[in-house]
Amino acid sequence: MSIISTENSEHYKWGESSDGWHLLKSDDLSVIEELVPAGEQEQRHYHEKAQQFLYVLSGQASLEVAGKERVLNSGHGFHIPAKVPHQLRNCGTEPLRFLVASQPKSHGDRVNV
After folding, report:
1. Most exposed residue of 7, 36, 81, 88, measured as fewest CB within 10 angstroms of its CB?
2. What is the reported pLDDT for 1?
3. pTM of the predicted protein model
């Protein structure tokens, strides 16, 4: 066991210029820290098996879940059950940093809509 941070975890890029770091990567549970520049968004999608919990560390997120838009500020979180369509975007002027925990892992479980 060791201390985990974005400096020593697996990194990946997504979208135009967003970043993700696998803080915990197992088949049963995934924890990712993501950094999304102002104005960037992910494609609307759902997960067949994975439920997710998003928690905003800094910045402001617009989260559309099943057709309803919500604004999440720093210190706010939201649970997304499996099979529920959703889309996150950075609606603020600052970079958005958040954690997403998925159970089971969400990679390979995504369906774009």
Report:
1. 7
2. 82
3. 0.95
> What DSSP line would sit under 54-98, residue for residue?
EEEEESEEEEEETTEEEEEETT-EEEE-TT--EEEEE-SSS-EEE
Residue 107 is classified by DSSP as T
* Token digits of residue 29: 């549970």
pLDDT digits (tens, 9 = 90+) for 8-41: 999 999 999 999 999 999 999 999 999 999 999 9
- For residue 58, give both structure tokens: 């800094």
Q: Domain boundaries in the chain? A: 20-72+84-93
Omega prior to 104 cis, within 30 of 0: yes
